[in-house]
Amino acid sequence: MLTIGQLASYAGVTVRAVRHYHQIGLLPEPERDSSGYRRYGATAVVSLIKIRTLADAGVPLAQISRMLEADAATFAEAVRRIDRQLRDEIDRLQASRTQIAQLTAGNGLALPPEVAAYLDRLREVGASKRMVAAERDGWILVAARRPDRVVEWMPVKLAQLEDPQVVRLYRVLSEIFDSDTTQEDLLVEAADIMVALAEQAYRSGDMVAEEEPLDDLPDLLDALAAEHDPRTDRLRALMRERGWSGWNRMERLPEPPDRPPVS
């Protein structure tokens, strides 16, 4: 007959684990002998090894008792079910590992790789670190709202970076964001470039309404831009003066009515 310590040693578990299995009713607790000690036989060793094997395989303790009492067919089905659960958990953990790995690049957080590549291209054309960070946060919002479309837009965005006007715009905005002063002259230049690009898209017919409206996303993007840098409010005001509503909801403003003649 074995002591509890010897039993635990045979099965490769701790004494604490054996006592826990007793407490939850998983392993029968033997009567104490005349000296007050529990004594275990070979059957207890076999049972404990089975319990340890199932627990090590990932079977929840609450299911082990039923599995030990099940017939061969029921046991096999229980094993298949647990195997499916473990595969699902492995897939979930692998997805988590992939997301964690993306954090090393910074831009990968909550963004598909196509957007991260676009942000890398922004750096290459001269956008500042602060400008890229603002753009990244904006795309995080877009990806959350339109995950089905955001990747489709990336080729268009990359093609736009071949336009010298767009490159100049990002460089001007970078200079604005990196400065501690108002930079009114650069704000005016940025507004002029953005209006010129809007007029060009309007004339070519590239500016079309979304089949599925983005609801409040443009307003949320404007709010995000203002939180990154309050001077973006001034930039939108300059665009309105030039007949456009802003850059995240690019719409022509109605022409002001003619004023009556002064008598």
Brief rundown of the structure:
The protein is rod-shaped and about 100 Å long. It folds into three domains: 1-61, Multidrug-efflux Transporter Regulator, Chain: A, Domain 2 (Orthogonal Bundle); 70-105; 106-241, no CATH class. It has helices at 4-11, 15-23, 42-56, 61-69, 72-102, 113-124, 129-145, 150-160, 164-177, 184-204, 217-228, 231-241.
Q: Helix count, per DSSP? A: 12
Average residue-wise pLDDT: 84
Instruction: State the helicity in percent bands.
Output: 55-70%
One letter per element, helices H and strands E, the order comes to HHHHHHHHHHHH
DSSP strand content? under 5%
Shape assignment? rod-shaped
- The Rg value, from CA coordinates, equals 33 Å
Task: Describe the largest sheet.
Answer: none
Q: Could you list the spans in which at least 5 consecutive residues all have pLDDT below 50?
A: 259-263
In total, the number of domains comes to 3
Number of strands: 0
Structural class: mainly alpha
How widely separated are the two ends? 118 Å
Task: Break the fold down into its secondary structure elements and pairings.
Elements: H1 4-11, H2 15-23, H3 42-56, H4 61-69, H5 72-102, H6 113-124, H7 129-145, H8 150-160, H9 164-177, H10 184-204, H11 217-228, H12 231-241
Helix pairs in contact: 1-3, 3-4, 6-7, 6-8, 7-11, 9-10, 10-12
Tell me what the structure shows.
- The chain is mostly helical and 263 residues long.
- It folds into 3 domains: 1-61, Multidrug-efflux Transporter Regulator, Chain: A, Domain 2; 70-105; 106-241, no CATH class.
- 65% of the residues lie in helices and 0% in strands.
- It has helices spanning 4-11, 15-23, 42-56, 61-69, 72-102, 113-124, 129-145, 150-160, 164-177, 184-204, 217-228, 231-241.
- The longest helix is centred in the first third of the chain and has 31 residues, at 72-102.
- The radius of gyration is 33 Å and the shape is rod-shaped.
